[in-house]
């Protein structure tokens, strides 16, 4: 990195994942070693400890990069404070990389197919440092934007082909032009950071790892649209993100980058954080505005669209965090450059949160058009415990499950919808043969039913009835005709609901019926769960033919209900067993049913 | 309101309204003040005591019914005192796939309370939340601000014991 030639940088991942894995003690250990050795004097350079945002491979936290000028950066993973003295002594003082502790070749593979654009600063700079941000092209995008007219800025965004990253995929430039065309002086800009989808956390990583980048994207939008006031609506479940963003905003106000005459460039922009209060539906734009106004977060029918009549009845433009973060890069490198990445219909990169049963869970940023298979197998190392891949759930509660035969789908908005899922916010949850698809449908429906705001009947009552049916099925009380009834209800609820929550809530059910109908049938006709995960249908017996006598079930059982000795088949004592499924999860040979 | 069964918190009648008044002063003339006021008053008291709600209604000139409408809509507002340690069990997709249900059951067995309940000694409150956003380390729980990843039934017990031992 050319920007920091004069110093040795120790980058410690301090996103939420890193902190949970113990990044703070690691940082303290480095500081202690530096003080002990007087490192700066010894190597003749300043050694800087940098708390960065998340760099994607959360499963292997704490990640530490040592960047010595003139050498390739070296990454250590699973760093514990007790490893620090060795790293400092051998690597920083003697220039010998500690090979044993280095991240394995999988880390190279993890990065190989990625294209980190929006994440280029996350994990390389101190998230809270304005100087670091400025050293990495920071605020050069807005400076370029003000040399154009607002109209030209919007044209540039249209030219880039950027589409809404919140999941809807509406062309961003077009959206801006609607709001810009609305009459009136008072307009609002809102950043939707109410990342409610379970299994998606890329917005949070941007807020925690590159808050200034988001502010810059919003400034460009504010200049283009003529909106002088902005809100960032952040989930209250993200305390660290709120803290870092607030700090960044405060610094910007201090320096005159925000407020009246931003950066001395001749336009005004005020920015404020609004903390949500825990309602998934507030990610829907009209509900989000109601929430900012201090009401119950209930959607209202559109039209009128927010661009015409939005917050406090004024024209309002709402984009997702990742969309704004992309905008800065369009102006660093030009709309044409952005349009050269990706597919016909989807330009640029997309960040996915890979979770579930893959080897390397975390955040990956890939160019649009790569296949789902490449993301799962090449970037994330395939399935955990070498089990069989069953499905990947894309797009959160409003998306769908894709089976093995569909994962050659390219990741772009249109081909995913064709396959029966959707891009959504970008959560990909990978499931292996131990995950029951009926249970997954039930899980999502349970979530959407709880989060339904209750304003319209199809969603409020329809989802509840569907959930009842699914619960019955997973308990072995399914009836003939349940599947057809579910399908019928899905179509009606999709058609008749007021907002996106209800219109997409049936998707997980529809897609699991479409691809995994046999699992539904097994539950209904034979009272059997093919994945052995529905508790009510589990027998908790060891399949002698499959048991490899390894004793993992014995070691994991919290109530000592497994009887096992070395070289013997395991037996489960049904008197003691609490049906907790620990043994079933631990067994690598599917020997418990 | 005159339900004989309803528990009356002993401090109900003698609550210091000072902190609540200070919060309201800050937001008095701002648009959309209701939510931030409720959030900050809750931060000050740990929950939203009834006298405070009446005070907010009066000073912000909002109907009580509207305030209760907002309070009961959002998951984050609490009308009852809460425990010192708030254990949030993540129930997101990734955690669900990796067995969060079992973790939640274990926790309930250990503490004898379910979702959104508080132990009698006001030490623990359990909450099942949608997604903490640390899916890379599923299953996850949080105790107040501390996050514990890759939780197993055994690890769960250690964590609870650790907090039990604290006062």
TrEMBL record, chain A:
Keywords: 4Fe-4S, Iron, Iron-sulfur, Metal-binding. The keyword Iron applies. SMART domains: NADH_4Fe-4S (SM00928). The keyword tRNA processing does not apply. Pfam families: Complex1_51K, Fer4_10, NADH_4Fe-4S, SLBB. InterPro entries: 4Fe4S_Fe-S-bd (IPR017896), 4Fe4S_Fe_S_CS (IPR017900), NADH-UbQ_OxRdtase_51kDa_CS (IPR001949), Nuo51_FMN-bd (IPR011538), Nuo51_FMN-bd_sf (IPR037225), Nuop51_4Fe4S-bd (IPR019575), Nuop51_4Fe4S-bd_sf (IPR037207), Soluble_ligand-bd (IPR019554). Residues 538-567, 568-593 form the 4Fe-4S ferredoxin-type domain. PROSITE patterns: 4FE4S_FER_1, 4FE4S_FER_2, COMPLEX1_51K_2. PANTHER family: NADH-QUINONE OXIDOREDUCTASE SUBUNIT F. NCBIfam families: PRK13596.1. Belongs to the complex I 51 kDa subunit family. This is NADH-quinone oxidoreductase subunit NuoF. It comes from Geoalkalibacter halelectricus. The lineage of its organism: Bacteria, Pseudomonadati, Thermodesulfobacteriota, Desulfuromonadia, Desulfuromonadales.
Automatic annotation (TrEMBL), chain B:
It holds the Pfam family 2Fe-2S_thioredx. InterPro entries: NADP_DH_HndA-like (IPR028431), NuoE-like (IPR002023), NuoE_dom (IPR042128), NuoE_N (IPR041921), Thioredoxin-like_sf (IPR036249). Its cofactor is [2Fe-2S] cluster. Its EC number is 1.6.5.9. The keyword ATP-binding does not apply. GO terms for molecular function: acyltransferase activity; NADH dehydrogenase (quinone) (non-electrogenic) activity. Keywords: 2Fe-2S, Acyltransferase, Iron, Iron-sulfur, Metal-binding, Oxidoreductase, Transferase. Belongs to the complex I 24 kDa subunit family. This is NADH-quinone oxidoreductase subunit NuoE. It comes from Geoalkalibacter halelectricus.
């Amino acid at each position: 990195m050319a920007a920091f030639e004069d110093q040795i940088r120790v980058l410690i991942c301090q996103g939420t994942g890193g902190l949970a894995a113990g990044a703070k003690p690691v940082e303290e250990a480095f500081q202690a070693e530096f003080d002990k050795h007087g490192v700066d004097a010894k190597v003749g350079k300043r050694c800087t400890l940098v708390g960065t945002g998340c760099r994607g491979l959360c499963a292997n936290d704490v990640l530490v990069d040592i960047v010595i000028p003139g050498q390739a950066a070296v990454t250590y993973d699973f760093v514990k404070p007790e490893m620090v003295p060795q790293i400092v002594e051998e690597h920083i003082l003697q220039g010998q990389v500690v090979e044993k502790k280095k991240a394995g070749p999988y880390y190279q593979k993890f990065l190989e197919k990625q294209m980190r654009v929006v994440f280029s600063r996350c994990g390389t700079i101190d998230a809270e440092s304005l100087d670091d941000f400025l050293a990495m092209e920071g605020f050069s995008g807005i400076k370029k934007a003000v040399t154009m007219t607002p109209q030209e800025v919007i044209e540039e965004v249209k030219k880039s082909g950027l589409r809404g990253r919140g999941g809807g995929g509406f062309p961003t430039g077009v959206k801006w032009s609607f709001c810009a065309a609305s009459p009136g002086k008072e307009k609002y800009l809102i950043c939707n950071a109410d990342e409610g989808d379970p299994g998606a956390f890329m917005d949070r990583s941007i807020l925690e790892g590159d808050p200034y980048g988001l502010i810059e994207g919003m400034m460009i939008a504010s200049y283009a649209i003529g909106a002088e006031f902005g809100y960032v609506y952040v989930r209250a479940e993200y305390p660290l993100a709120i803290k870092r963003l607030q700090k960044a905003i405060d610094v910007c106000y201090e320096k005159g980058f925000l407020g009246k005459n931003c950066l001395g460039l001749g336009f005004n922009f005020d920015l404020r954080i609004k903390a949500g209060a825990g309602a998934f539906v507030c990610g829907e734009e009209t509900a989000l505005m109601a929430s900012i106004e201090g009401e119950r977060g209930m959607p209202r029918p559109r039209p009128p669209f927010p661009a015409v009549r939005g917050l406090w009845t004024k024209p309002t433009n709402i984009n997702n965090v990742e969309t704004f973060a992309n905008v800065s890069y369009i102006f660093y490198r030009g709309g044409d450059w952005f349009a050269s990445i990706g597919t016909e219909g989807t330009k640029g990169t997309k960040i996915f949160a890979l979770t579930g049963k893959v080897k390397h869970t975390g955040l990956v940023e890939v160019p649009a058009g790569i296949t789902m298979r490449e993301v799962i197998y090449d970037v994330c190392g395939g399935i955990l415990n070498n089990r069989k891949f069953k499905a990947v759930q894309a797009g959160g509660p409003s998306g769908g499950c894709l089976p093995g035969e569909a994962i050659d789908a390219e990741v772009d908005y249109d081909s995913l919808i064709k396959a029966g899922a959707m891009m959504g916010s970008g959560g990909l949850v990978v499931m292996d043969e131990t995950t029951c698809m009926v249970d997954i449908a039930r899980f999502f429906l349970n979530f959407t039913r709880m989060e339904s705001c209750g304003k319209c009947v199809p969603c409020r009552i329809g989802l509840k009835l569907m959930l009842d049916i699914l619960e019955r099925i997973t308990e072995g009380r399914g009836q003939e005709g349940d599947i057809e009834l579910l399908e019928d209800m899905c179509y009606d609820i999709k058609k008749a609901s007021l907002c996106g929550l209800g219109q997409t809530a049936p998707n997980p059910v529809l897609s699991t019926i479409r691809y995994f109908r046999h699992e539904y049938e097994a539950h209904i006709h034979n009272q059997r769960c093919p994945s052995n995960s529905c508790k009510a249908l589990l027998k908790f017996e060891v399949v002698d033919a499959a048991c490899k006598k390894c004793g993992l079930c014995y070691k994991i059982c919290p109530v000592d209900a497994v009887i096992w000795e070395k070289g013997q088949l395991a037996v489960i004592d049904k008197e003691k067993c609490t049906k907790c499924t620990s043994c079933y999860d631990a067994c690598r040979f599917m020997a418990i049913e | 309101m005159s339900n004989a069964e309803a528990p009356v918190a002993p401090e109900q009648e003698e609550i210091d309204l000072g902190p609540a008044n200070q919060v309201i002063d800050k937001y008095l003339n701002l648009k959309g003040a209701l939510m931030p006021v409720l959030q900050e008053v809750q931060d000050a008291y740990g929950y939203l005591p009834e006298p405070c709600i009446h005070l907010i209604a009066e000073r912000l000139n909002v109907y009580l019914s509207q305030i209760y409408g907002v309070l009961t809509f959002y998951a984050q507002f609490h009308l009852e005192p809460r425990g010192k340690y708030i254990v949030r069990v993540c129930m997101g997709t990734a955690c669900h796939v990796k067995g969060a249900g079992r973790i939640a059951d274990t926790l309930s067995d250990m503490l004898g309370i379910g979702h959104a309940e508080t132990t009698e000694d006001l030490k623990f409150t359990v909450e099942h939340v949608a997604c903490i956003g640390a899916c890379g380390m599923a299953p996850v729980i949080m105790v107040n601000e501390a996050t514990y990843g890759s939780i197993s039934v055994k690890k769960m017990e250690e964590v609870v014991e650790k907090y039990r031992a604290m006062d």
